[in-house]
Design a protein that fits this description.
The complex is a heterodimer of chains A (174) and B (111). Chain A is an all-alpha fold. Chain A is built from 6 helices and no strands. Helices cover 54% and strands 9% of the residues of chain B. Chain B is built from 5 helices and 3 strands. Chain B has a 3-stranded antiparallel β-sheet. In chain B, a hairpin with an 8-residue loop joins strand 2 and strand 3. In chain B, helix 1 packs across helix 2. Chain B is elongated. The relative contact order of chain B is 0.14. Classes of the chains: A mainly alpha (174), B mainly alpha (111).
């Protein structure tokens, strides 16, 4: 893996860390970056490689960001039920499209239970990340950029899962 | 307190049983100890470390590098790990006495 690719990956992970509570970032942020960098270098030589590593990292980060923000009781905003209900409703609404398509036998839709669970997790995680961004980022322009980045990350993972884009994955370099 | 550890927390304590380690070393040791069944990402790892620091099961040892802080078991953490290992051992002994391994098709564990 090239130095440029590693630096780009570290920059993306540094951005993800901003979604953790501030006190958490201050205490563990540098260590988490170190563990991320070393793990990424290891993943480069392992089966599944960097793409599997990034998928695991996104899922791990999504779960822990939600958990740490929910546990954070010292100042700042706490997540309310509506912050969870909105992404949940959106996920169910989006997943109803392939579900209904399968019910009325439209060609091209043959999702398994695993497909629904996987896409549900990705969409719900994205929705929660958007809710956290909305809570944490006060500047409207920054918030728009953050939401766009979150949605882009979802689309990239979705496209990779659908058609595989490992050969053109920018993070692994040429 | 009678709280049982999560799987991640158990393996983290196990990794610190012999010597102090920093986060990346803990992650590698957990992966090895669990035969690659438990792979901790930084989020899960440091969430668990945070909760165990708050519960005084582990403590940070002083160091100069903010990217590599070392952690070690406290006396409370050591006792807690011992009680968890004893609990698992008791369960295995019970299973052996009742010949459950054979019953459940796990003959390789029925020593």
């Amino acid at each position: 893996m090239s130095k440029e690719s590693l630096q780009r990956s570290e920059n993306i992970y540094s951005f993800i860390l901003k979604f953790y509570p501030k006190s958490y970032q201050e205490h563990f942020g540098e260590e988490m970056k170190f563990v991320f960098s070393e793990s990424l270098k290891d993943a480069n030589t392992e089966k599944g490689g960097v793409v599997d590593f990034w998928i695991r990292t996104i899922i791990d980060s999504g779960k822990s960001i939600i958990k740490e923000n929910l546990e954070n009781r010292k100042g700042g905003e706490k997540m309310k039920n509506k912050n969870i209900a909105r992404p949940l409703v959106a996920t169910l609404a989006i997943l109803s499209v392939p579900f209904l398509a399968m019910l009325i036998s439209i060609d091209g839709f043959a999702w398994s239970l695993f497909d629904f669970m996987l896409m549900g997790t990705l969409i719900f995680g994205t929705g929660l990340a958007v809710e956290v961004a909305n809570m944490k980022i006060k500047n409207k322009n920054h918030m728009i950029v953050a939401v766009a980045a979150i949605v882009l990350a979802l689309l990239v993972v979705w496209v990779h899962l659908a058609v595989g884009i490992v050969d053109t994955w920018p993070l692994v370099g040429s | 307190m009678d709280k049982h550890l999560s799987q991640s927390e158990f393996y983290i304590l196990l990794s610190l049983a012999i010597k102090e380690r920093h986060g990346y070393e803990i992650m590698k040791q957990v992966k090895e100890d669990s035969s690659q069944k438990v792979i901790l990402g930084p989020g899960t790892l440091y969430g668990s470390i945070k909760r165990m620091l708050e519960g005084s099961f582990i403590k940070e040892t002083p160091g100069d590098n903010p990217r590599r802080k070392y952690y070690t078991l406290t006396e409370k953490g050591r006792k807690y790990l011992s009680s968890e290992l004893q609990r698992y051992n008791d369960a295995v002994e019970l299973a052996k006495r009742k010949k459950l391994f054979k019953e459940l098709g796990l003959a390789k564990f029925a020593l």
